[in-house]
Amino acid sequence: MPKRSPEQDNLPNPTNTGIFGLTCSEEDAQFIIIPIPWDVTVSYRDGTSKGPEAVIKASPQLDLFNQPMIGTDINIVYSLPINPTWESENTRLRAISKRLITKMENGEVFTPQDNRDLDDVNAGCQKLHQEVEATAANYIAQGKIVGLLGGDHSTSLGNIQATAKHYPGMGLIQIDAHMDLRKCFERFPYSHASIIYNSVPNENIAKIVQVGIRDYCEFEYDQMAQSNGKVKTFFDLDIKERQFKGDTWHNICHSIIDTLPHHVYITFDIDGLTPAECPDTGTPVPGGFTFAEAAYLLQQIKKSGRKVVGFDLVEVAPSQNEINVINGARVLYELVKASLSPK
Known about the structure:
Elements: H1 6-9, E1 31-36, H2 51-58, E2 77-79, H3 84-105, H4 112-141, E3 145-150, H5 157-166, E4 170-175, H6 195-199, E5 205-213, H7 218-225, E6 231-235, H8 236-244, H9 249-257, E7 263-269, H10 291-303, E8 307-314, H11 323-338
């Protein structure tokens, strides 16, 4: 880890530094972060499209000395700039989707124009996923690990698909309050609530392990139950029961990790944490993990010898309560650390 002088430690990071206050170039980076300012299909509270910029802006506030990436130079992470085309398209399509969702909630019949608008939204979401997949695949082919920073949970799909294609047989571990196994939720096939439903058919994904789930519908439960073991869910209530009866979090973590293959992709929805640690995320749910518990799970994945080949962090929503983005930045850093596991 590069040394900093006492004078540097007592000065703010220069404004031209990158994510985590680093100065790594795109060429030299081992990790590429793709920020996606997108919340077109969110169903409750929007605002997660502003999450990537806010997390990147907050990330230099982390003091990295007391939590180094053991055995490596820290200056290995580069974040791409936010794509202004994606940003403007999100603004346009979110206005349309909000109007359509309101009509659905009110039980109104769609007009021909509404159906054309729905097609416009769905086509825009599909285009985003295709562009993200192509971008991620380019960096993965260069030997880099790609982390996606959303945006709502739908943004993960392109990176998951690109990573799975490069690492067939990989496992997907999902830290989340929701199962995200809804089919075409609110008539949006690329909904944030459909990310896992859209990942199950991918033959390059051998196992999907859901952790901390505590809000789901009967259809989603049936999708899990009918997956022939491809989807394994560790429900929050079951985890808490084990803890209440005296089981340790260490033991629980390893019972989760034991279900994963060697190559692992981590998709981390910030609402997997307790609402106290992410109060302004789009769909907060009581229960969940503390930051320390989630970080410990990620550390144990690394220590198990598994190789984290890609990851994403989604659903961070900025507000005047800065704990949302500070915790988001810290989770993102923990995901990078976990991805340094041996080959």
